[in-house]
Amino acid sequence: MYKALIIDDEKPVQIAIQKLGHWKYYNIESPRLAINGKDGLSAMREFRPNLVFVDMNMPVMDGASFLMKASQEFPDSQYIVVSGYDQFSYAQQAIRYGACEYLLKPIVEEELNTAIERAILRIDPNAVFGEPEENGKEEISPEEAVRIIKEYIDSNYCQNIKITMFAEKYYFSIEYLTKLFRNKFGYTIYEYVLKLRMERAKELLEDENNKIIEIAERLGYADNHYFSKAFRTYYNISPSQYRKEFLSKRK
């Protein structure tokens, strides 16, 4: 069987490639992982992968530097760039250093497997593949993903919400999801969570029977001090002062 290596510092991207690739169909072992170019070179020397997926923008050693060294040391390996950038300079560097395919994030299943097939046929033009796999992944568009995320936040904004949970679930990078959400709704995911919390905080403060420490707890803040700081930063007034001014206007 062929061997594959995924070199990317974004865990959701690693997961997406692992989940969406039809590895058994193309007679490829389950891919191994590396988090940067330096780590990737070490991994290549250890198990000599036939197929390598590499990001262009990584810490320690970026994709261009990796490709330059790896293509010289392992000229028979096939390199597929998976990048969040569609800039011509990145594609030009990738091609210069021997990449056979250039895919854009987020990962699209059909495009990924087309690239895998082309790479395998470069290795062996007479390669014979197996039966198509059913990977069980629910197909979802980026637009649908951000809609679902917004609906989830609307019902759970008092919980500890992390973008990584959405990135890993829908196989999109954190940066890509944040950009999509902001373009669609005018806020980043964290900004939207904060907006809902602060708007609800105002409503709760307007009832003098609600203690501020209890409001902080209801809205998911670890302590009253952190809540008060967040409220002051957002509205430029402390919770207690807002309540005082609101109640004085109501009388």
Give your account of this protein's structure.
- The chain is of the alpha/beta class and 251 residues long.
- The protein has two domains: 4-123, 3-Layer(aba) Sandwich (Rossmann fold); 142-250, Arc Repressor Mutant, subunit A (Orthogonal Bundle).
- It is 55% helix and 9% strand.
- The chain contains twelve helices and five strands.
- It has a five-stranded parallel beta sheet, with helices on both faces.
- Helix 1 links the parallel strand 1 (4-7) and strand 2.
- The longest helix has 17 residues, at 189-205.
- It is elongated and about 85 Å long.
Q: Count all strands and give the number.
A: 5
Number of helical elements: 12
**Main sheet characteristics:** 5 strands, parallel
Share of helix among residues? 55-70%
Q: Tell me the distance between the termini.
A: 79 Å
Average pLDDT = 86
Order of strands in the sheet with most strands = 2-1-3-4-5
Global geometry = elongated
Short description:
55% of the residues lie in helices and 9% in strands.
Summarize the SSE layout with pairings.
Layout: E1 4-7, H1 11-20, E2 32-34, H2 37-47, E3 51-54, H3 63-73, E4 78-83, H4 88-96, E5 99-104, H5 109-123, H6 142-156, H7 163-170, H8 174-185, H9 189-205, H10 212-218, H11 224-235, H12 239-250
Helix pairs in contact: 1-7, 2-3, 3-4, 6-8, 10-11
